[in-house]
């Protein structure tokens, strides 16, 4: 199958490679000409045979809106646009209407898997009509993990991003729980090897998970997370989850507390947020901030390398 893929960053680039390994033809566009296959969206559309499927993998908000606006003028009736970024679900319905006026289908897809998705596959949650989803199904099948699970047609347009939003809200709470437990273990003098306590939990316990495995990876890299600043950004989906809970009168105390902890980290150097920051870097390649001493050492080393 042919696919146009717009946005070849950390996830988009790996998705292109996974799809090509599965035998699909992918025409990729990115603002960085060094990694793009074509020089413009018009050229991308011209290289695809109809009915076309174009997957948008760019930041939510204005970048996604402007991309969809341009595609609306380039594509033809019967084509389908997939938004695989982290758009808010309320935007999906608007995009579906805008494209639908011109006979172009729209599918929203929440994607999870981070920098590990190339080898492990991506968990996919998508929303749209059965006909539009069917046009994209071979791509979904190639991107998902092997086996019976890892992908779901969650419902109507918007359902995919809503499901991914809730997924990320749960992720906030799980990461916060590991981070709080890690800080408490570090504070108690009688526990002399916190890293190995975490490692021991990887087998046979009810709290074993991929996030726990990544926490151990992070501790292997920096046993006491001394190189990191206790700061963790929030991508927006945690906020949207809490806002949706308020709109639907659903109590989310753990997820809300985890979101507020992120806010606290943005004011102080929080020990718990060192673990949350390390986990985000491990699974998604998200940027981390070095503490002042580490940043100074890195700058000094950089100056030596320049000589």
From the structure above, extract its key features.
single chain, 307 residues, alpha/beta, Rossmann fold, N-(1-d-carboxylethyl)-l-norvaline Dehydrogenase, domain 2, seven-stranded mixed beta sheet, elongated
Outline the fold blueprint.
Layout: E1 2-6, H1 10-21, E2 25-29, H2 41-47, E3 53-56, H3 62-74, E4 80-83, H4 89-100, E5 105-112, H5 117-120, E6 123-127, H6 130-143, E7 151-155, H7 159-187, H8 194-200, H9 210-221, H10 237-247, H11 253-265, H12 271-284, H13 292-306
Parallel strand pairs: 1-2, 1-3, 3-4, 4-5, 6-7
Antiparallel strand pairs: 5-6
Helix pairs in contact: 7-10, 7-11, 7-12, 8-9, 9-12
Architecture of the largest domain, according to CATH? 3-Layer(aba) Sandwich
Mean pLDDT value? 92
State the distance separating the first and last CA atoms.
51 Å
User: Rounded to an integer, what's the Rg over CA atoms?
Assistant: 21 Å
| CATH class bucket of the largest domain | Alpha Beta
Can you give the helix content as a percent range? 40-55%
Q: Quick one: CATH superfamily of the largest domain? A: NAD(P)-binding Rossmann-like Domain
Strand order of the largest sheet: 2-1-3-4-5-6-7
Structural class call reads alpha/beta
The tally of structural domains comes to 2
Describe the structure concisely for a colleague.
The protein starts with a strand and ends with a helix. It is 53% helix and 12% strand.
